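User: Can you fold this complex?
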Amino acid sequence: MRPDLTLIHHWVPEGAQVLDLACGDGTLLDALARDKGVTGYGLEIDPDGITACLERGVNVIEQDLDQGLANFDDDACDLVIMTQALQALRRPDRMLDEMLRVASEAIITFPNFAYWRHRLYLGFKGFMPVSRSLPYAWYDTPNIHQSTFNDFERLCTDKGLVITDRAVGRGDHESHWSSRLWPNLFGEIAIFRVGRGEARRHG
Amino acid sequence: MPETLPADSVGLVTPQQARFDEPLPLACGKTLPAYELVYETYGELNAERSNAVLVCHALSGHHHAAGYHSPDDRKPGWWDAHIGPGKAIDTDRFFVVSLNNLGGCHGSTGPCHINPETGRLWGPEFPVMTVGDWVDSQVRLADRLGIARFAAVVGGSLGGMQVLQWAMRYPERIANAVVIAATPRLTAQNIAFNEVARQAIRSDPDFHGGWYAAHDTVPKRGLKLARMVGHITYLSEHSMGAKFGRDLRSDELNFGYDVEFQVESYLRYQGDAFSTAFDANTYLLMTKALDYFDPAADHQGDLAAALAPASCRFLVVSFSTDWRFTPERSRELVDALMRARKPVSYAAIDSPHGHDAFLLPDARYGAVFGGFMHRVARDLGLEERH
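Assistant: Here's the predicted assembly.
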């Protein structure tokens, strides 16, 4: 399993009702269903991912995340997960609002643009970084909203959301996940666990 | 039939007949004293009787879903693209049951049969059937075949509505539901089109209030019109455009009302063929069954509440250019299923073929349908032969 998925696997409570946004081939939901009795749905638009989910027996709904989550009620589930997709959405900020409307908790992972290798790439070569976590050229990348570990923290703060957990990862060491020093510099992939703020909880 | 039978064909098939003497109470308040159902089966029922798949047909469909009745048949059954060895409904693994619904005109008890109480044809006196009535009759066929629980019940369009009815009314008898190009209820526009078709038939002077057989005639013009208007709703604007464009039959306009455009010729041909092959009373009755289907109506419009009894897994499939039962209608169903927390998957297939796409072969449609059925087979421990 992808390293960010392994970490998320630990964070998801037993028996939770989960919505996995951009669930890919359903690996995570499949593992969560088998290991933790999790139920729920994956949303995906990639045909191959959808077919893979069907063959696995993962509930998958063909739905474009840029259209929002209006078809889900408030508190429709316990937890919303979005791995490596926030940066590809037209309005990540609105999606964050939506995620914390349909569930009280969200887990989000995205490539950290401020990772030191990316900084070096841009700083010294003068080109947009291309790396394992950002494998595209500037003109064909689906990642239209690059952000950093710090950027995301600030967005959560501005929205009054509560960050309950965070971690960073380096793609080359699966076990090397921690809330380490200088995450904005050394984290290649950012993982956040976010909850509703006070206003939202009592409102 | 082709010279040599394709390896993925179920081959030659023979329809079978089942008679039921226990009266069937109907939604309209009447009771059908006894009835016959004609059906076909493909593949073999396993020892555990766990691998049965029921196929439900659409408006003008019937029991002949796959294979050929005789080597002289020009075309195979209506869903041959998806039923056969190695196909989405893999007959190497599944035992497929496909029947003609009550009120039909292909062998099951319907308007063209004798009403035992009057000794004459049922004709227009055949009771108006509902999707629920059909499913009740199908359950008895399952009992007769010794099938306690279907591995899957599948259907497109009106067939998909029967699948939904199975899931809601007989949850313990269906493990998986495949609902394709269907809708949880007709829109006003859908009902309007059906009413045009009905009026075309009923206003034909040869209709005789439904007693046309007694007058030794058939309301061919009405049926033809009904089919023409229906056919327009089965195709997309794009597929009609691609097939015919503004092509003319001859080189020039002739400023008259004979067939000029190819699309006119096509529609007339389709209408003519249908008008001699289908029964008018059956057509009227089938369109009514479509109009009446609305499971949410019994739950103050709450579809999720209507679906609450279901305990099967669902696959819902829609087609992008289907404007008869649009992808939005399928989404409505999927959203209700999710609200009811039922296991459901949904695929929106890109297709230029409109509503008819559910009948046609398509790579992605096949992968989705086949992928889901593969999982059904795997969960049952059914061996794959291909």
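The mean pLDDT of chain A is 90. Residues 3-202 of chain A form a domain with the Rossmann fold fold (CATH 3.40.50.150).
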